[in-house]
Structure formats: C-alpha cells, structure tokens
Amino acid sequence: MEPGAMTHFLRFKASSRRVPFNTMFFPFQDNYPSLMRISPLRQKDIDIFLNFPVFSLKTFALQGQAVKIDKTNLAIIKHLRNGKKSFKQIAQELRLSENTVRVRVNRLVEEGVLEIAGLVDPQCVPGHRLIYVGVKLQSMDLIKKGEEFSKLRGVVSASVVTGRFDLLLLVLLKEGFGLLEFYTEEVAKIQGVQSVETFVIYKSYHLKVPYIL
Q: Is 50 in the same domain as 100?
C-alpha cells in the first residue's frame, strides 16, 4: 500500500480537463523518498504544483493536520513494546518499507503520541515499590492541580478521575524516599488538598514504569 515513506492524498474539485489518478509523482529530496497520489486535477492546478519548490510540497503534506492514528500506526506501536526491535524487523513483519516505519515512528514521537523509554518493574528493584494515591481537593480546579501533582518527585502519573477521588496518582518510592517523605516533602507543597488515601501495591502484573527517582 505504501511504496514510499508516507503516502499523502491531496484532493481537488474535479473539472472537465483531468489527469488520470496516480499519474503524477513528486519525489521528496530527503532521506525518505515519498510518493504523492493526486486525484484528478485541472491543468491549471497541475501547472501550479509543477512550479512549487519541493520543500513547499512537503510542508503542505506534512503540516496540514495532526498525525492520524490508523491501523498501521497502532501495529507499529504494538511491535515497539519490545524496545529492542529494529525498524527493519518491524517493517518485515508488517510488510512495509523500513523508511515507512521510521517516518511514522518519528511523526508519532514528534506529535507526542508515542514515547520510547526504558521501563522497570519496581518489584525487581530492591527497596522500591509503587503506590496509588487518591486525592480529594477543596476546589474543582482539577486540571491545574493535576499538573501540579504531576511535577512532584516520585509521581509517575497523575490523572483526573471520576468517583470519590478527584485525582489518582501513581507514585514510585524507594529507601530514603518513602510514604512519609512523599507526603511531608512533596504533597505538602500543594495547596487546597482536602484528604489523601494510600493504596500500597503488594503485587502487580505487567506494570512497568520509567525510573524517575
């Protein structure tokens, strides 16, 4: 389906003078040659495009819209669960070109959809453990408070949730930075906290986190 690094579709209103679909190709002069499929065009549109510099075509194609999370992107992300798997291996298994995989991964990273990072299982690291913390706030300023909590030491993630809590935190602790230190040194910095409740994780399955301490 994708002979180049990325296939872009540019659609224009058809007129009486047409060029057959898929007859015009614009190779981008970068490390990833791309194919541009263009639907039936008026001769005037063709003349305009032929006079565009290559970088303008690329800018138009890549910057017009946020990256689309399609089945191919999801399949690539699934393969990246194994962080050591190369683009070449992924491409072979998905029957894509290596350039296609590389460009799609780069776009996903640039758009903030995908982050490639090393994760650890705290159960395998001596002196470390994970906890969940439910937070009730005195106000409904949930987004701002969620951002504040997300910046505290040890906080892997902070989520605005439904239910009896306003926020749910996933926190990584270690020897010398336990529950007491987290609450007295970190949570104490946040104003407007009504109450907190701690849920210690004794055993987890498929729960790995970035080492942030």
A: no
Residues 95 and 105 in one domain: yes
171 and 105 co-located in one domain: no
Q: Is the pTM of this model over 0.90?
A: no
pLDDT in tens, 95-126: 889 998 888 888 888 888 887 777 888 888 88
84-107 in b/e form (b: 16+ CB < 10 A) is: eeebeebbeeeebbbbbbbbbbeb
Among the listed residues 189, 113, 125, the one whose alpha carbon sits nearest the alpha carbon of residue 151: 189
C-beta of residue 6 within 8 angstroms of C-beta of residue 34: yes
Element (H, E) at 211: none
Beta bridge partners of 137: 193
